[in-house]
Amino acid sequence: MPRKIHGHETAFHKLRKNYCFACGQNNPEGMRLKFTLDEERQTFVCKFRLGKRYTGPPGHCHGGIIATILDDAMGKVNKLHHVIALTKEMTVQYLKPVPLHKSLHVEGREVSVHGRQHINEAEILNEKGEILARSKGIFIAIDPEKMFGKFVER
């Protein structure tokens, strides 16, 4: 059974609220994506449906939103190592238009880890299991206290 993972659940728990546009439950304008960990496959998964506010081409999702979803899915994978890692670089392949108002899901998985560098992949799939978009990203593990300490609510 997939385990629920909320927001940026890592060893850095000092941020009381999560305003991340993609997964932050405290962002009223955000997407509020909820990821679960499929422990058997070591994959982070999120089921979602996109409304008209994410329109790019008529009836389909904007490419920037597709990249956002893929980036967040890949970023969740770093939790397997209990680190916060920021995106250094990512590529996106837009294979088929991503439809609005349809059931979709995204899956993120690890490719490799080399020191602070984490390489991950993600895919957005439709109900039929067709891959609509995929990405590969390089993430660099950071010290969250140094980078985000000034934003901690004390």
- DSSP helix fraction: 10-25%
The total beta strand count reads 7
Average pLDDT over all residues = 90
**Beta-strand residue fraction:** 35-45%
Largest sheet: 7 strands, antiparallel
Proper CATH architecture: Roll
Low-confidence stretches: 4-8
Shape: globular
**Helix-and-strand structural type:** mainly beta
Number of helical segments?
Answer: 2
Strand order of the largest sheet: 1-2-3-5-6-7-4
Q: What is the radius of gyration computed over CA atoms, rounded to a whole number of angstroms?
A: 15 Å
CATH superfamily: Hotdog Thioesterase
How would you spell out the order of helices and strands? EEEHEEEEH
Instruction: Tell me the distance between the termini.
Output: 36 Å
CATH fold-level topology: Thiol Ester Dehydrase, Chain A
Highest-level CATH class: Alpha Beta
- Taken together, the total number of domains comes to 1
Polypeptide structure, described:
The protein is mainly beta and 154 residues long. Helix content is 12%, strand content 37%. A 7-stranded antiparallel sheet has the order 1-2-3-5-6-7-4.
What's the helix and strand layout?
Blueprint: E1 3-5, E2 35-38, E3 43-48, H1 63-76, E4 84-94, E5 104-114, E6 117-126, E7 131-142, H2 144-148
Antiparallel strand pairs: 1-2, 2-3, 3-5, 4-7, 5-6, 6-7
Name the features.
Thiol Ester Dehydrase, Chain A, single chain, seven-stranded antiparallel β-sheet, 2 helices
Quick take:
The protein contains two helices and seven strands, in the order βββαββββα. By secondary structure, it is mainly β.
